[in-house]
Specification:
30 residues, mainly alpha
Length: 30
């Protein structure tokens, strides 16, 4: 997962990115 410095200025965008990564991982596990 790549975290850009601009994401730290937009917590909501960063949260959605992490949430999206988590959903992809959990979906591939089940």
């Amino acid at each position: 997962m790549c975290i850009l410095s601009s994401d730290w200025q937009n917590p909501e965008s960063l949260f959605l990115k992490i949430k999206g990564e988590f959903l992809i991982v959990s979906d591939s596990v089940t």
